[in-house]
User: What shape does this take?
Amino acid sequence: MGDYTFPKDFWWGSAASATQMEGSIDQDGKGKNIWDHWFEIESNRFFDGVGPGKTSQFYKKYKEDIALMKKLGHNSFRFSISWSRLIPNGTGEVNKKAVTFYTDVIDELLASDIKPFINLFHFDMPLALQEKGGWENREVVEAFAAYANTCFNLFGDRVNTWFTQNEPIVPVEAGYLYDMHYPNELDFKKAVQVAYNSLLASAKAIQAYKQTGQSGEIGIILNVTPAYARSKHPADQKASRIADLFFNRAFLDPSVKGEFPQELVQILKDLDFLPKTEPNDLEIFKENTVDLLGVNYYQPRRVKAKEYLPHPEAPFTMEHFFDHYSMPGKKINPHRGWEIYEKGIYDILLNLRDNYGNIRCFISENGMGVEGEERFLNEDGVIQDDYRIDFIQDHLKWVHKAMEEGCNVNGYHLWTFMDNWSWLNAYKNRYGFVSVDLAQQGKRTVKKSGWWFKEVIDNNGF
Ligand code: BGP
Assistant: This one.
């Protein structure tokens, strides 16, 4: 046993999402989601032209995968339900084969002493609903609450840790500001509406959960990285405050405190970007805050005051208020291009302790995507991913320190269990404890980090 011991019942495990791991996207009655559709019309947008159909095939191999999770000591696993697999058109009829599949997955996890954590939405809007505008459309808010309710009724007797959404800012920024995800719009007004409606949908799903009378807990998963200013100069400080407002507080405050930050509301009002709302929305936010917060952390956000005035005709984005800042001497994961800054995880947790009532939370994603890991195979065919072990360990040390200082952290999940399809990067960067060999029918092999993590779990620390 080392110096870093974690509390008894700490959640050790990993996270994944339906679209990234299920595969079998055109089988057993699944409806299309935006990823299936976008890949059909623009496969060139995806690394090596690989789409979501060719994922790790959890849909077929879940028993084998869960057996491996058990072997590696997991006590919890977060996955998402594919809305368009369960309800092919987003509303209306439920797909019985999907019910069977998710029931079997849950039962298999429970039989293996692994707590299922279910997330209801991970970037994968059913196509039928995106055709109506997706989160832009208030009808979709109601459709989500109904879908959530269906899930609670179907699975809530055995699942007691729920999440409404994963990183709701991603569909906003990637889909409506930066041309990274479908529907590839660039429209700030719509982006604000999408953010507002998805948060409202989350609150309504929480309301639906409470109305079921089930005894579990429900939360949301946010990537709440602090925005670090280049310097103490007031202009840099202001840049970071505004970046923090848009990227973090816009999601954290309504989810945890049930209200939007006044400064953000004022900025949007001044720019005439306030979303359409209905009279009792604020009450819904106020009354339906989360029990639990998932924190995803990969990289810090660094900003500085703007160097130049924005072009008057350029479309409006958050970068109207700040520039991104590349800090000299930063440590970087070259494969993903993301800075590695371990202390960021501690800063997030202290912020939650000091400004968000020390809400019960856990690290719901952290991880390192690396290209070409087969370079590190040893003679037994095991990937020697010492860089991943260092990455996890260095982050866990900061988590441990935050806990010693009173932060209410209940677990650590790696992104991800086995190598998954990574949205635009497809299979370029691998994140898993377990490698997936696409050339050999998705053959699974535990990496060195998987065995190392098992030891950490067995010792409840290192
Ligand atoms: C998070 C997402 C995950 C996962 C991860 C790694 O933001 O919740 O779905 O993909 O990032 O990012 P990427 O796959 O783009 O490398």
